[in-house]
Protein backbone atom coordinates (compact mmCIF):
# COMPACT_ATOMS: atom_id res chain seq x y z
CA UNK A 1 0.00 0.00 0.00
CA UNK A 2 2.88 2.31 0.79
CA UNK A 3 4.38 1.81 -2.67
CA UNK A 4 1.07 2.59 -4.33
CA UNK A 5 0.90 5.86 -2.38
CA UNK A 6 4.47 6.75 -3.39
CA UNK A 7 3.72 5.91 -7.03
CA UNK A 8 0.60 8.09 -6.95
CA UNK A 9 2.43 11.02 -5.33
CA UNK A 10 5.33 10.67 -7.78
CA UNK A 11 3.05 10.63 -10.81
CA UNK A 12 1.12 13.61 -9.41
CA UNK A 13 4.41 15.47 -8.99
CA UNK A 14 5.46 14.70 -12.56
CA UNK A 15 2.09 15.87 -13.88
CA UNK A 16 2.22 19.13 -11.89
CA UNK A 17 5.80 19.86 -12.95
CA UNK A 18 5.05 19.18 -16.62
CA UNK A 19 1.92 21.37 -16.41
CA UNK A 20 3.97 24.14 -14.81
CA UNK A 21 6.64 23.96 -17.50
CA UNK A 22 4.05 23.96 -20.29
CA UNK A 23 2.14 26.99 -18.92
CA UNK A 24 4.89 29.50 -18.18
CA UNK A 25 3.33 32.31 -20.22
CA UNK A 26 2.27 35.36 -18.26
CA UNK A 27 -1.40 36.30 -17.90
CA UNK A 28 -2.82 39.50 -16.47
CA UNK A 29 -5.23 39.20 -13.58
CA UNK A 30 -7.54 42.17 -13.06
CA UNK A 31 -9.66 42.94 -10.04
CA UNK A 32 -12.59 44.31 -12.08
CA UNK A 33 -13.76 44.38 -15.70
CA UNK A 34 -12.36 47.28 -17.73
CA UNK A 35 -15.68 49.16 -18.01
CA UNK A 36 -16.30 49.06 -14.26
CA UNK A 37 -12.70 49.98 -13.49
CA UNK A 38 -12.91 53.05 -15.78
CA UNK A 39 -16.15 54.13 -14.16
CA UNK A 40 -14.73 53.83 -10.62
CA UNK A 41 -11.28 55.11 -11.57
CA UNK A 42 -9.61 52.15 -9.89
CA UNK A 43 -7.93 49.39 -11.83
CA UNK A 44 -5.73 46.87 -10.03
CA UNK A 45 -4.03 44.07 -11.89
CA UNK A 46 -0.94 41.93 -11.92
CA UNK A 47 0.87 39.63 -14.31
CA UNK A 48 1.59 36.07 -13.18
CA UNK A 49 2.54 32.84 -14.93
CA UNK A 50 -0.52 30.77 -15.79
CA UNK A 51 0.56 27.78 -13.69
CA UNK A 52 0.76 30.02 -10.59
CA UNK A 53 -2.82 31.13 -11.21
CA UNK A 54 -4.05 27.55 -11.65
CA UNK A 55 -2.18 26.09 -8.67
CA UNK A 56 -3.06 29.13 -6.54
CA UNK A 57 -6.73 28.61 -7.36
CA UNK A 58 -6.49 24.97 -6.30
CA UNK A 59 -4.76 25.88 -3.04
CA UNK A 60 -7.26 28.68 -2.32
CA UNK A 61 -10.15 26.26 -2.96
CA UNK A 62 -8.66 23.70 -0.58
CA UNK A 63 -8.11 26.27 2.16
CA UNK A 64 -11.64 27.65 1.81
CA UNK A 65 -13.08 24.12 1.80
CA UNK A 66 -11.13 23.05 4.90
CA UNK A 67 -12.19 26.20 6.76
CA UNK A 68 -15.83 25.78 5.69
CA UNK A 69 -15.85 22.14 6.85
CA UNK A 70 -14.19 23.07 10.16
CA UNK A 71 -16.89 25.68 10.78
CA UNK A 72 -19.67 23.25 9.78
CA UNK A 73 -18.44 20.58 12.19
CA UNK A 74 -18.20 22.95 15.16
CA UNK A 75 -21.51 21.81 16.66
CA UNK A 76 -20.44 18.15 16.46
CA UNK A 77 -17.10 18.86 18.17
CA UNK A 78 -18.86 20.86 20.88
CA UNK A 79 -21.36 18.05 21.48
CA UNK A 80 -18.56 15.47 21.66
CA UNK A 81 -16.74 17.61 24.23
CA UNK A 82 -19.87 17.90 26.36
CA UNK A 83 -20.49 14.14 26.15
CA UNK A 84 -16.86 13.34 27.04
CA UNK A 85 -17.09 15.64 30.06
CA UNK A 86 -20.31 13.90 31.12
CA UNK A 87 -18.72 10.44 30.71
CA UNK A 88 -15.75 11.45 32.89
CA UNK A 89 -18.12 12.76 35.57
CA UNK A 90 -20.18 9.55 35.52
CA UNK A 91 -17.05 7.38 35.65
CA UNK A 92 -15.86 9.26 38.75
CA UNK A 93 -19.29 8.81 40.31
CA UNK A 94 -19.32 5.06 39.56
CA UNK A 95 -15.84 4.71 41.05
CA UNK A 96 -16.92 6.54 44.18
CA UNK A 97 -20.03 4.36 44.53
CA UNK A 98 -17.97 1.17 44.11
CA UNK A 99 -15.56 2.21 46.83
CA UNK A 100 -18.48 3.06 49.14
CA UNK A 101 -20.18 -0.28 48.39
CA UNK A 102 -17.06 -2.32 49.15
CA UNK A 103 -15.95 -0.25 52.12
CA UNK A 104 -15.07 -2.44 55.07
CA UNK A 105 -15.02 -5.66 53.00
CA UNK A 106 -12.06 -7.81 52.13
CA UNK A 107 -10.38 -6.65 48.91
CA UNK A 108 -10.35 -10.11 47.35
CA UNK A 109 -14.05 -10.63 48.02
CA UNK A 110 -14.83 -7.18 46.59
CA UNK A 111 -12.92 -8.00 43.38
CA UNK A 112 -14.69 -11.35 43.05
CA UNK A 113 -18.06 -9.69 43.61
CA UNK A 114 -17.34 -7.13 40.88
CA UNK A 115 -16.28 -9.83 38.42
CA UNK A 116 -19.29 -12.05 38.98
Automatic annotation (TrEMBL):
Coiled coil: 80-107
Transmembrane regions: 46-68
Residues covered by the Lipopolysaccharide assembly protein A domain: 44-94
Record's keyword terms, sorted: Cell membrane, Coiled coil, Membrane, Transmembrane, Transmembrane helix
Top-rank taxon: Bacteria
One Pfam assignment: LapA_dom
Protein name stated in the entry: LapA family protein
Source organism of this protein record: Sedimentitalea xiamensis
Organism lineage: Bacteria, Pseudomonadati, Pseudomonadota, Alphaproteobacteria, Rhodobacterales
Amino acid sequence: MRYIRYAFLGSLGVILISMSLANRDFVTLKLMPDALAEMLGFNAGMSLPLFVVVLGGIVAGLVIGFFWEWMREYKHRREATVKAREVRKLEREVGKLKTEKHEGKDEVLAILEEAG
